[in-house]
Fold Oxidoreductase.
Amino acid sequence: METKCFKALGCISALGLGTSGLGGGLWQRDEAHDERHLAVLANALAKGIWVIDTSEVYGDGHAEELIGKALSNFGRGERDRIIVITKFWPDKADEDSIISSAKSSARRLGTYIDVFMPHGPTSDLCKTVRAMEKVVDMGLARFWGLSNVKRVDIEGARGCAKKYDIAAVENIFNFINKIDAHEGLSYAQREGILYIAASPLGRGLVLESIKLRRIANALKRTPAQIALRWLMDKEGVVPIPRTSRPERVLEFAETYGWRLPEEYARELDSL
Ligand SMILES: NC(=O)c1ccc[n+]([C@@H]2O[C@H](COP(=O)([O-])OP(=O)(O)OC[C@H]3O[C@@H](n4cnc5c(N)ncnc54)[C@H](OP(=O)(O)O)[C@@H]3O)[C@@H](O)[C@H]2O)c1
């Protein structure tokens, strides 16, 4: 495993796992593939992919239940080194419904939440931040974060926080889609905030890139490994690829332990 270190979170694994699609679709529970999805999680945890990103909406909560099942095989010492991020739907604006979401997620996970965040911008950011601080005070989560935000939102949210600083930001980021990467990323890097790269494989579409395939052939790696390594080589960035196939997790784990040569990184930077 490789690690990256952050102000609030300390040192955590440099690669994570996304879990949309595990346990069903958005707001849709499906238990038919539980065995395969548990194997995806078991492989990730066995290979030191120790940042797990989920949400109350993935499989209508069933992804969280599967994660809870996979984590139950770990002792307290190991669990404390794993980072579980979960998200609530941003239509919840009032404190009671945000706390209620956190309680339900922690119950399904069977453990505390490491980072709790809304899926996207909420109608009243300050109110949301204070509710997330309450969730931390209640011991349901260790930290709070934000998703699908710009630098200005991060700064605004930090200004609203009374007790705890932001720990993580989660934005879509891959070598084709670099939304806000310049401003938000450099800000997070400077402030020691974890920058989670959501959709690091562009939902599989970026793997079709001819340039990516050429680099993968030259380095005897797979396109997914190049796409992930490009992100992992950036300070403060932890990508969270998703797969429904246990064997692909082993492919992801092989991104540990090497770096993308500078000339190839520059090629992907410039796309
Ligand atoms: N905060 C947000 O609003 C937000 C938004 C988007 C995503 N996310 C998070 O980011 C995670 C990942 O993003 P994503 O779900 O958009 O997808 P992604 O990780 O960018 O791509 C996943 C897709 O790529 C395919 N794939 C994976 N490995 C592959 C390989 N080695 N070769 C070929 N195809 C491969 C997968 O198919 P198979 O299943 O067949 O392997 C799947 O269809 C999500 O699960 C979620 O946790 C968060």
Notes: The chain has one domain: 3-208+236-259. The CA atoms of residues 54 and 86 lie 5 Å apart. DSSP finds eleven helices and twelve strands in the chain.
